[in-house]
Each structure stands twice: as C-alpha cells, then as structure tokens.
Amino acid sequence: MKKRIGLKSLLVGAVCALLLMSQPSAKACTGIQLKTEDGTFVSGRTLEFGIFFETSVIVVPRGYPFVGKTTRGNGKKWKSKYACVGVIIADNEVILDGINEKGLSVGSFYFPGFAKYPVTTAQNQSISMSSSDFTQWIVSQFATVDEVRAAIENNEVAISPVLTPGFPPEVQPFHFVVYDRKGKSLVIEPLNGKLVLYDNPLGVMANSPTFDWHMTNLRNYVALNPNNVPPVSIFGKTFKQLGQGSGMLGLPGDFTPPSRFVRAAVFCATAIPEKNAERGILQVFHILNNFDIPVGVAREVHEGVIHSDYTMLTTARDSKNLRYYFRTYDDQTIRMVDLSKFDFNAKSIKKISTKSKQKIVDVTGKLK
How far, in whole angstroms, is CA 80 from its chain's centroid? Predict the structure, then answer.
C-alpha cells in the first residue's frame, strides 16, 4: 500500500523549493589533471557554493551495500566492488568526489540550465539512482574509464530527478568527470534525458555550458603562449614588453565557467611536469589557487541579502599512491587520507569532518 502524503506537507515542500530556487546560489567548480615525470596522474578540483554545506571525508570498504534513490522509491541496488575515499555532503553517505583502490577518480560538477534527467518509470526504476548516488556507483564499481563507458553505453544506469539529502529541496543539476590511473578521462552529461559521453583529452572540467562547447571555445585562445613576446619595431621605435607574461595577454581572468575552463586548460598545458606524485599534488594545489574564489568577489544581492560564491573545498587525488587530499576555506592546511592504510574488507564506513580552523604559526622566537 502506498503511503499517503498530506496536502499540507506537499504545500510546505513546494513553497520551500520555490524559495530555495529563487535565491541565488552560484556553484563554480574547476577540475584539472596533470602527469608527473614518473608517469603518475594526479587530479584535483575546487568546490564552490553560495551557501555553506557541512562536508566530511569517508572511506567506504568493499562489499558495502547501496540503494539508489528515485522519484518512485528505491532504485538500483549494488555493493561496492572497490574500496574508495572521498567527500560527502551533510550525512548523505555517498561520495560526490573521490578515488578508489584502483586509482579511478570521479567528481560531480554543477551543470545548471543544461542538465535534464530522464523520467523515472516502472521500466527504468531498477537501474535508476540520484545524481549523488551516481558518483558513488562509479567510484565503487569500476577500475577504468573504459569500464565506465561500457556500462553507461550498455544502459546499466539512469539518473532520477529526485531530491537528494544534504542539498536544498530542488533537483541538483550535475555533470561528471572520471579519471583513471592511465590518465584517461571521460565527461558524462545528462542531456535531454540521456547520458552523453565525451572523451576529455585535456582532463579539464568546469560548469555550464556543455563540454563540447568549452572545447570549441578554446579555439579563440590558440594564440596564448607561455613565452614572452619579443620586442617589435615600428617606424624605428622599439617597443618592449612591460613585464613577464606578455605571451598570456588576453587570458580571461574572471570566474565564469568559460573563462575558468580556458585558464585551467592553459595552466595544465603549460605546466612543467613535477618529478613524482607528491610534488605533482602540490602543483595541483598551486594551479587551483588561481581558481580560489574569496567571499565577496562573485555575488548577487537578493532581497537585501548578499549571496557570495566562495571556494569551500579544494581536493586532490593521487592515482598511484591512492591518497586523497583536501583543504577548506577556513583551513588552508593540506590534509591527506591514505586509502591504502585501511582494511578494504572492513564492515563499516569511516568518517572525518573537514571542519577545522587555520592555525597561524608564531615564529617570532625562532628569529636569530
């Protein structure tokens, strides 16, 4: 027998949804991948919101059971094939960004104005899950990008437009990026009710519009060059560059998704490879510094209240050593969870809050 839902509950839910949808809440995330001299692929991303979310890092063991959420109730059921570590929001214990024991990483990115999920029906309910469940399914089930592609092309999964715990009461518009240990990357976008796949040779990710649009837009910036522009002579007068970086003149510096995608692509393409994974992770954080949004620079005023997007969290993933790194807006200390030190066959999830406060080190007494 179906449980009856009261009219009052429906009205309250609808009003809350409308209120949340009417309030600006920009979500500007940027993702990158780098290769080190020893052949290790490292990746990372920023996580931005206009409102605060509680976040934690969890480790999920092999064999842990999951049930996808859908608009019709329970959906796809599975058990984790691989142990994984990553970030969750609130108490919804499904990883939105993380890495598994095979070095496969996944991340969800906001995709407003373009994400369109299929309607959940009796026919597809058994393979359906929420957009948040989707990243957990990928990171717990697959070892390579090719495996992810094959499963999606084989129609093994569908994303249901369901409200997910931890988020405002509106369907969250996501698209997704996957990386594996060999450096392959795949972008997955829910367009017109279907999951569209794109190879991602640059390893770069941002928000709307679609990935193929971003790749086309890069052609507007093919003149950018890490080398300084040489002096030119005009009517006997020599004009020299004013300073370093003249080859990058015209690089977009704002925080819109198209500009961030271009910057990320250029920074990754021109980065001098570090020697190993540990150095590569630090390079990931240095590059992502360029996408750090401080409170106030990207904002809207709604009914007299300022809504400011800011970088809540920055994460990095080491596909060789299976280490997951993170830092927060309130604490720039880089913290790390080493997945390889956990029992992959444990019975329960382990969890730690990302909340902490930056410590300022007083070195006054060390001066000589």
Answer: 21
Q: How many domains does the chain have?
A: 1
**Residues 103/182, Cβ–Cβ less than 8 Å:** no
CATH number of the domain enclosing 65: 3.60.60.10
Residue 229 within any structural domain of the chain: yes
Look at residues 57, 107, 91 and name the one whose alpha carbon lies nearest to residue 355. 57
Angle at CA of residue 210, ends 207 and 215, nearest 5°:
95
Contact present, 63 and 345 (Cβ < 8 Å): yes
Report the pLDDT averaged over residues 76-80. Answer: 98
Q: Is position 141 within any domain? A: yes
Pairing of strands 158-159, 128-129: parallel
What integer pLDDT is reported at residue 164 of this predicted model? 84
pLDDT in tens, 326-350: 999 999 999 999 999 999 999 999 9
Full domain range(s) for residue 243? 23-354
Secondary structure of residue 62 in the 3-state scheme: coil
Known catalytic residue at 29: yes
In a domain, 364, yes or no: no
* Interacting residues of 126 by C-beta distance below 8 A, sequence separation 6+: 75, 76
Q: What is the pTM of this model?
A: 0.91
Is residue 44 included in any domain, yes or no? Answer: yes
Sign of CA dihedral 62, 68, 69, 73: negative
